[in-house]
Amino acid sequence: MYYTRSGPSHDYTSCKAEILSALSDDCVSWHPEEGARLLPEPGELRVVCPEVVLTADGKFRMYYESQPAAAADGTLPPAVIRSAISDDGLNFVNEGVDCLADPEQLVSFGSPRCVYLDDGSARLYSRASDGSGDVNKQVGTTMSIVCAVGDGLSFTMEGTCISQETAVESVTVYAPAVCKFRVGDGWGWRMYYAGWGGPPTRGYICSATSSDGVSWEKDPSPVLAPDSAWDGVKCSEPDIVELDGGGFRLFYEACDGTAEGETGVWRILGASSRRAAL
User: Fold this and answer.
1) Domains of the chain: which residue ranges?
2) Whole-angstrom Cα distance, residue 238 to residue 254?
3) Could you tell me the pTM of the whole model?
4) Measuring CA to CA, which residue among 133, 186, 134, 143 is closest to residue 165?
5) Mean pLDDT of 234-255
6) pLDDT (tens digit, 9 = 90+) per residue, 166-223?
7) Rounded Cα gap, residues 150 and 80, in angstroms
8) What class has domain 1-163?
9) Rounded to whole angstroms, how far apart are CA atoms 252 and 49?
């Protein structure tokens, strides 16, 4: 598992973050590995939302959200999607490429997810802003989930997959996790993503299906809603794995809301399903 550690500040103009990893034998109990997998480089404030895939030549490629450091006036430039490469899954080297970035610096990209297509190309899903409001704090900003296709480093935009349309998406949509699932004799695509709505503001795990991976139909209700002692105010940033014994496990970021301002302890939680297609 690759994950983000950030803090201690919650001020988005100064909060630093790095990418760590953990190992598990049973997909339930996880043990952090020593050291960081990726640290911010000079000029970067934080690196977050890691997505690691195997390349055709057996290497590990990490896509991640890179937040440039604040400008002289204290504002943050839009985030971009970058990549890093590794031979062993532990030591990653920045590839020096902005996989998704707006040359006009009006759109901020983040929370990437990558899937390989049958022709060997790669499709990169990402959160995107429209450039209005505060794109870093996601305040007053229209958010969407977009996709782009390419060779793994260079990508061409395909279009918008998910827009803000429902009550649980009124604040933001982001953090897509995409997988194939069986539909009759063929295959389709399922996306899990974070939807935030309110008031009061809460985070939910939503889902959608697609026959081509570009055009999506939303499911009517969230897959997970905040309702326990561990995720009382948010379920967010999902990722999905298929278990060896059958079924699926959904990992997600949670916050219990036990501190002032409905913050509190943040955790990575898991939820399981035995349904073949979730």
Assistant:
1) 1-163, 166-278
2) 10
3) 0.93
4) 143
5) 93
6) 999 999 999 999 998 878 888 899 999 999 999 999 999 999 999 999 999 999 999 9
7) 16
8) mainly beta
9) 12
Q: How far, in Å, CA of 237 to CA of 269, rounded?
A: 11
* CA-wise closest residue to 47 among 8, 70, 81: 81
The phi, psi pair for 198, rounded to 5°, reads: 170, -170
Range of weakest confidence among 130-144, 179-193, 240-254, 263-277? 130-144
Q: How far apart are CA 88 and CA 90, in angstroms?
A: 5
What the block records as the tokens of 36 is 């960081």
Dump pLDDT digits (tens) for 101-145. Answer: 999 988 999 999 999 999 999 999 999 997 544 544 455 578 999
**Whether the Cβ atoms of residue 226 and residue 242 lie closer than 8 Å to each other:** no
Going by C-beta distance under 8 Å and a sequence separation of 6 or more, which residues neighbour residue 266?
253, 254, 255
Could you tell me which residues come within 8 angstroms of residue 103 by beta carbon, excluding any fewer than 6 positions away?
A: none
- Specify the CATH number of the domain 166-278: 2.115.10.20
- Whether residue 148 contacts residue 158, with contact meaning beta carbons closer than 8 Å, is answered with yes
Domains 1-163 and 166-278 share a fold: yes
| Burial (CB count within 10 angstroms: exposed 0-12, middle 13-18, buried 19+), residue 220 | exposed
CA gyration radius for the chain?
18
Measured CA to CA, the distance from residue 17 to residue 97 in angstroms comes to 20
C-alpha–C-alpha distance, residues 53 and 141, integer Å: 30
- DSSP label at residue 73: T
**Which pair of structure tokens corresponds to residue 64?**
């991640």
User: Which residue is it, tokens 């020593």?
Assistant: 34
Look up tokens 């059958």; give the residue. Answer: 246
**186-197 and 93-100 as β-strands: parallel, antiparallel, unpaired?**
unpaired
